[in-house]
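Progress against Task 2.4 (sequence-to-structure conversion) is shown through the following example record, which the project officer requested during the mid-term review.
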Amino acid sequence: MGAVHQVALPDGSPVWLVTTEAEGRAGLANPVLSVNKDHAGSGYKGFSLPPALDAKLLNIDAQDHLRLRRLVSKEFTPRRVENLGSTVRHTCELLARGLIDRVKSRGAADLVAGLAAPLPLTVVGDLLGVPDQDRGPFASWMTRTVRPISRTGTE
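Structure tokens generated for the chain above:
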């Protein structure tokens, strides 16, 4: 049966599904393959991101990836990441309690709109230092950046 299969996304776009770690690692190490969607040809192009955000660590190939990774690595030392983890956990706990209390007071809830969406948006906004008055536009922008696009390029 094999570890690599071509499958279709819900919109019909063809993609490759890799089902074993060994095949995944082999693919990641193969210089013929690319994570840069400019090399994708037709079909699925990934998430609809503004060009400046599209050139990020997850969407670029080896040399550019290493160059950008070196730029940020000083900020992500084990000690900083551990401290960041503690801060994020504390923020998440406080925020989750507040969101859950709001849901309880209403008696019903949309868990995505009431908890799953605002929690990561607030934490990321805090980490990036987004001012309170800019949280609404920030949330809207972040939601648009991770929305998948269809084969025709529309949302």
